[in-house]
Structures are given as structure tokens and as C-alpha cells.
């Protein structure tokens, strides 16, 4: 791990510790349950990408909470996934917002989860945008296991800061928000910032192949799975960002930054994990 003041940058060897050797005599119940709240009629792909990323994370169960139109469209595409009508609060981790569409209903779901859920809660995409539109103060009711994963434009909506202000000083912008709302911020960018104020990590893995639709959905799904299988919330954010970034590098080597797609990155996750764990 390299240090720049109190900023940390992980190496492959250190990320390897987030992938402990799996004992032979175990079952799916030993590896936790990840519940994704994702997708709508317009954004079916977000649900697929987040679920398939979670399936590759090593967790035992992946559950998708979605409306009937999403379930009927995807049930045969991702048969390993358990489809639910409501969030499962017994899950070790929940990720919410990927391709859901901004709405009062989604905002109310996030508000209930902040109040009632005791596991790791990942708030992404339209859930972040719903907080920005209908009131971010509900974040102050969180139980300290909350991760927000905005990119600069979403963070601008949430904070009222300009994109220029955020990109000029992402470290301090992210830290200030994490401190005020007692949460973990993963501020996505060319070098993503992950902070809970006391710790700050800069993820330098990745390529511009990630600057395409679907990347954030995969990140949240994989992160949710990592938290479900037992990583601490902060570590799950670090592990997911790093592994997805490495998979993007592998994909870009194969197909170039121009041609590599989110699906390519998804399909190379196993090569990234193999490279980290061999």
C-alpha cells in the first residue's frame, strides 16, 4: 500500500486479502445474501448487470426486488436470482437504486431502509438522485453502515456543489459529506475516492472502458455481494472498485477502451479475481 499523507492506494497483493480461501465443507448459507433493488421497464439492463455482478462476487444468494414487469422479463435470463416483491431485511447487504427511475416511491423505500435496516446499505444511481430531489436529510437517520456511490454529476445534485468544484477537490468534497452524514462515500471518477473521513482510499485501477452505461450498476452489485459474503462496508467498496477496475483493464487489453462494453467487463470479472488470488 502506498501512502500520500493519509491517502491510501492498494496493491494487488493487499486486495487479495479480501478474497480469503474458501473452505471446502461450506454451503451457500455461509456466504451471505445480497438483495438488489433495481430495474424498471425502461432500465431492465441495470437489474441484469447488477445481479450478474453480484453473482460473481462470491456471495451465497442474490435476490432481486423489482416490480412484476421486471421479474417477468428477467426470470429466465438470470435463473440463479431469487425474485422478491419487497426488500429482504434479513439480507446481509442491500443495494438500491440501479435503474429504478427517480420517484417518491423510491425515496420512501430508501427512507425506510435507513430507518429499519441493520445491514450494509448501498445507495446508488436513482436512489441518490431521489435523495437529492426529495430530501437528503433522511441520511442523518442512518445506522452507520451506509455507502453512497455517486459520480460527479449525481454528487453535484446531492450537495449543491458545481461539478467543477467537485472535480477540483474530490477528496475534501467527499470527506465533508461523509462527515456530515456519517456515511461512506465512493465518489466515482477516473481515480475514485472512497472515504469514511477516518480513512480515505484512492482507486487507480480502471480504464475509460468504464465510462459507459452499466458500469455503476455492476459496481454496486459486486459491492453488495462482497458485503454479503462478509467484508466490512468500507472494505467491500474498496474491493469492488479495485476488482471492477482490473476487469476493465483486462477488457481494454482485449478489445480496446473504445470497443470494450459493460458486458465484456462483467465477463472478465473471473479473470480479474483469478489474477488477484493466484
Describe the structure.
The radius of gyration is 17 Å and the shape is globular. The protein is of the alpha/beta class and 278 residues long. 46% of the residues lie in helices and 16% in strands. Strands 1-2-11-10-9-8-7-6-3-4-5 form an eleven-stranded mixed sheet, sandwiched between helices. The longest helix is centred in the last third of the chain and has 27 residues, at 233-259.
Describe how the helices and strands are arranged.
Layout: E1 2-4, E2 7-9, H1 12-15, E3 33-38, H2 44-55, E4 61-65, H3 68-74, E5 82-84, E6 93-98, H4 104-116, E7 120-123, H5 125-134, E8 146-148, H6 152-159, H7 163-168, H8 170-181, E9 184-187, E10 192-195, E11 200-203, H9 215-228, H10 233-259, H11 262-267, H12 269-277
Helix pairs in contact: 2-9, 4-5, 5-6, 9-10, 10-12
Q: Kindly estimate the percentage of residues that lie in beta strands according to DSSP.
A: 15-25%
Major sheet, described briefly?
11 strands, mixed
Rounded average pLDDT: 95
**Structural class by SSE content:** alpha/beta
Using the CA coordinates, give the radius of gyration.
17 Å
Number of helices: 12
Number of E strands:
11
Distance from N terminus to C terminus (CA atoms, Å) equals: 19 Å
Low-confidence spans: pLDDT under 50, at least 5 residues? Answer: none
* Helix/strand order: EEHEHEHEEHEHEHHHEEEHHHH
The main sheet orders its strands as 1-2-11-10-9-8-7-6-3-4-5
Instruction: State the helical fraction.
Output: 40-55%
Shape: globular
Amino acid at each position: 500500500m502506498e501512502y500520500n499523507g493519509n491517502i491510501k492506494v492498494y496493491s494487488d497483493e493487499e486486495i487479495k486479502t479480501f478474497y480469503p480461501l474458501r473452505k471446502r465443507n461450506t454451503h451457500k448459507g455461509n456466504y451471505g445474501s445480497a438483495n438488489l433493488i433495481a430495474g424498471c421497464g425502461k432500465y431492465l439492463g441495470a437489474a441484469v448487470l447488477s445481479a450478474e455482478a453480484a453473482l460473481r462476487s462470491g456471495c451465497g444468494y442474490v435476490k432481486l426486488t423489482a416490480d412484476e414487469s421486471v421479474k417477468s422479463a428477467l426470470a429466465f435470463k438470470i435463473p440463479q436470482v431469487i425474485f422478491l416483491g419487497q426488500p429482504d431485511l434479513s439480507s446481509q447487504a442491500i443495494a438500491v437504486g440501479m435503474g429504478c427511475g427517480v420517484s417518491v416511491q423510491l425515496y420512501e423505500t430508501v427512507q425506510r431502509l435507513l430507518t429499519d435496516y441493520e445491514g450494509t446499505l448501498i445507495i446508488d444511481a436513482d436512489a441518490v438522485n431521489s435523495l437529492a430531489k426529495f430530501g437528503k436529510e433522511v441520511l442523518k437517520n442512518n445506522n452507520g453502515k451506509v455507502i453512497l456511490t455517486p459520480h460527479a454529476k449525481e454528487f453535484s445534485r446531492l450537495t449543491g456543489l458545481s461539478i467543477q468544484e467537485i472535480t477540483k477537490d474530490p477528496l475534501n468534497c467527499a470527506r465533508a459529506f461523509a462527515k456530515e452524514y456519517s456515511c461512506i462515500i465512493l465518489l466515482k471518477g477516473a481515480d475514485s475516492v472512497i472515504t469514511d473521513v477516518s480513512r480515505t482510499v484512492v482507486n487507480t485501477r480502471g480504464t475509460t472502458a468504464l465510462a459507459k452505461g452499466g458500469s455503476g450498476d455492476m459496481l454496486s452489485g459486486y459491492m453488495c455481494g462482497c458485503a454479503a459474503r462478509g467484508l466490512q462496508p468500507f472494505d467491500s467498496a474498496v474491493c469492488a472498485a479495485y476488482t471492477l477496475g482490473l476487469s476493465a483493464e483486462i477488457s481494454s487489453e482485449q478489445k480496446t477502451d473504445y470497443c470494450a462494453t459493460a458486458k465484456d467487463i462483467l465477463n472478465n470479472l473471473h479473470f480479474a479475481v483469478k489474477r488477484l488470488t493466484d
